[in-house]
């Protein structure tokens, strides 16, 4: 799934919590968006393994739910929104494609690493690849409640996320070619940090 879809899921998850705690809506909604995005920061380490925690993340979200019900404060609601969004990020990647730059060709059987069992969970491929038309359709559907119910600045964020989603979907199958072209304009010192497949010879 696209990172924008994950962010919109985080916004959706946080929405009912923000309704329950309207005085802290901004904190709770921001926590949901950040939680939806955070697992993908492991793209800088081992993607879908370092920060993707399908079992432990779900357990943590369950504990946060109990805590928020027992002690309903801005902090517990924000933690709950963050952890629920992160847990749903894992689920979204499992029902999506496997790892690889071209998942429509690559039949990788690695979706998310299960640290509890010490193995990779195979992808379900309900969404064929990040940026697939069905990924965009899901993002649009998930965004509707936020666009209908939230204040203008959150509506603007949801609209921007959808805009990025549309552009990404349109360009998805050309991204490697675009990246190889763009890398030529990077200074030499920066190219050493670019994955080998993007460096043109």
From TrEMBL:
- Which keywords accompany this UniProt record? Hydrolase, Membrane, Transmembrane, Transmembrane helix
Q: Which residues cross the membrane?
A: 54-71
The GO molecular function terms of this record are:
hydrolase activity
Out of the domains of life, which is the source?
Archaea
The name on file for this protein is DUF457 family protein
């Amino acid at each position: 799934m696209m990172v924008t879809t994950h962010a919109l899921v985080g916004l959706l998850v946080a929405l009912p919590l923000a309704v329950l705690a309207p005085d802290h809506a901004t904190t709770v909604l921001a926590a949901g968006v950040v939680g939806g995005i955070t697992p993908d920061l492991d793209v800088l380490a081992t993607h879908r393994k370092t920060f993707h925690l399908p079992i432990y993340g779900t357990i943590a979200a369950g504990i946060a739910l109990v805590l928020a019900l027992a002690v309903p404060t801005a902090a517990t609601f924000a933690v709950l929104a963050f952890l629920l969004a992160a847990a749903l990020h894992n689920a979204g990647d499992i029902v999506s494609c496997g790892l690889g730059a071209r998942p429509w060709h690559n039949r990788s059987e690695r979706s998310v690493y299960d640290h509890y069992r010490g193995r990779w969970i195979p992808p379900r491929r309900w969404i064929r690849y990040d940026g697939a038309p069905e990924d965009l359709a899901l993002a649009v559907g998930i965004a509707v409640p936020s666009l209908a119910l939230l204040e203008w600045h959150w509506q603007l964020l949801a609209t921007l996320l959808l805009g990025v989603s549309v552009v990404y979907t349109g360009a998805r199958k050309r991204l490697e070619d675009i990246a190889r072209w763009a890398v030529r304009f990077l200074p030499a010192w920066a190219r050493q940090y670019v994955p080998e497949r993007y460096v043109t010879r």
